[in-house]
Amino acid sequence: MGFDPHIATGRQKHHEPQSKPVVEGERTGDLRAKKKMQQKLQTPTGQILYAFRKHIVELVFGQMKDVVGIRKFLLRGVAKVRAEWQLICLTHKVLRVLRRARPSVMPS
Q1: Fewer CB within 10 Å: C terminus or N terminus of the chain?
Q2: Gyration radius from the chain CA atoms
Q3: How open is the CA angle 56-57-60, to the nearest 5 degrees?
Q4: What is the 3-state secondary structure (H, E, C) of the chain?
Q5: pTM of the predicted model, to two decimals?
């Protein structure tokens, strides 16, 4: 099982029409990495896979920012920020487990 990343190469407004879609398997030549990624994201498969990020990763960050109120780190230094982030993630996971175990007891 390989790792096939789909990484944004720029910003795009919601529902903005795409440029001409690239046919999958089309020869990319000797393009730089950013151009190759742009072509990969323009394929139908690339668009579908890239769209999954909204459901998988960005949902968690949105919940942490909106529900929990985490907008910035309170500590300074890489080690302290890592420890703070781990604590935030731990509490997020514990709350998820508790809500699933007893949904009527925990607030939403």
Answers
A1: N
A2: 19
A3: 105
A4: CCCCCCCCCCCCCCCCCCCCCCCCCCCCCCCCHHHHHHHHHHCHHHHHHHHCHHHHCHHHHHHHHHHHCCCCCCCCCHHHHHHHHHHHHHHHHHHHHHHHHCCCCCCC
A5: 0.44
Q: How many other C-beta atoms can be found within 10 angstroms of the C-beta atom of residue 40?
A: 21
Using an 8 Å Cβ cutoff, are 47 and 41 in contact?
yes
User: How far, in whole angstroms, is CA 59 from its chain's centroid?
Assistant: 8
Residues with Cβ < 8 Å from 97, sequence gap 6 or more? none
Q: Which of residues 59 and 106 earns the better pLDDT score?
A: 59
Compute the distance between CA of residue 36 and CA of residue 41 in angstroms, rounded to an integer. 9
